[in-house]
Amino acid sequence: MFSKDDLLSSFYSLEELLSIERGGDEKALEEILLKYNLNKPSILIRSEQKPEIDIHCEQIQNTNDGKLWRVEFGGTSLGGLPLGETLALDEGSMSRVQYKGDGKELESLTSYIPDHIGIAPFPRIASLSNPPKITDVRRARPPRLNLLSGGGFNIDRLRYPWCTVGKVITWARYEIPGIFVPLEISGSGTACVVGRNTVLTASHVIPWGAKRWSAQFIPAAGSTVPTQPFGIFNVTSAHGYINTSSVNGYDMAVLRMDKSVGEITGWMGSISDNDDDDLYYDASWTSVGYPTSYQLAQDASLELSIKVQDVDNDDYGSREIETEPFTNKGWSGGPLFSWFKKYKGLELNCPCVAGTLSGRDQDFLDPTRSVFAGGNALVRLISYGRANWG
Q1: Could you report the per-residue pLDDT of 349-370, keeping only the tens digit for each?
Q2: CA–CA–CA angle 337, 342, 344 (5° rounding)
Q3: How far is Cα 274 from Cα 189, in angstroms, rounded to an integer?
Q4: Domain boundary at 59, 83, 107, which?
Q5: How many separate domains does the chain show?
Q6: In Å, what is the CA distance from 26 to each residue of 33, 111, 227?
Q7: Are 64 and 202 part of one and the same domain?
Q8: Pairing mode, if any, of strands 269-273 and 346-361?
Q9: Do residues 195 and 263 share a domain?
Q10: How far is CA 375 from CA 98, 252, 364, in A?
Q11: Could you tell me the pTM of the whole model?
Q12: pLDDT tens digits, one per residue of 185-207
């Protein structure tokens, strides 16, 4: 059902990509999840003293699908906020990039694939009796396949590289002068693992300026069991180019996790070329996101065979990478990536991220397009996370 153009990466043959496929080691994965206690949800609590937590469970009624329980959390040093929304981070945990140019025009970082994770270069057919949903999001003729994880094709989210993409949930408290009650806002976006403790997303997903905030990353999140197959990771700090609303080429940030997410899911490589636009125009790209327009952002949506329409230079050595407008709210932070065998003499042999979604925008007389933030600023930002966070 795919055309050859849909399946081909620009630098791998179809046969070579298919030869990369492998199954995962479920037993080894289960052992590493237990090792990192990822079978147990956790939160960050801001407190001078060690928190002491009491848990009380009470059955309140029977339902058609089992008993319903109320679970109460009590104790000391919990901060007085609902579990999962404890605002443990302050303004000092957000740092702004201090840009320094080094004259390099081509930059890249390699990937890592753990032995226990299976590899699936392509999405798989879920059911021939449930055909893929045809949408006109890209306004192409004929309509392009929009490959939703609940449609005729599944994103094989338990295998690489799909398992590196997940959902980010944020909570923030803003204290505005003249307003007596603090303003509390929650939000969500998309992110992907790009290092052992480093996750890449859009800068505007991060609540810059919040007095208190917290965030969690759920790799391979889904509405069907397992909904959180690799656990939930807490964000401990953010580093990026400050951006709160505009669509641009430097709308990017990296997040530090409280546990080594990359050792569980692996991570994708990254690539940029600020001198040669052919990198972007010649490749066939893929993107994954959690748009609120589909399943209320509970499941991921996938777009294949994306072609770049325009590339513009932006501040800090970044680049605006523009494609057809297939993205929606909630896709922000989703990666634009392709499998690379080699590029200009670099032996990569992995999927490389070239951009993270900033949003949709229109320049003067140009049509509306999806804009991904990329360029050397992206690779340097990821390098910062890998160098400083392990």
Answers
A1: 999 999 999 999 887 777 899 9
A2: 105
A3: 27
A4: 83
A5: 2
A6: 10, 21, 16
A7: no
A8: parallel
A9: yes
A10: 16, 11, 23
A11: 0.87
A12: 999 999 999 999 999 999 999 99
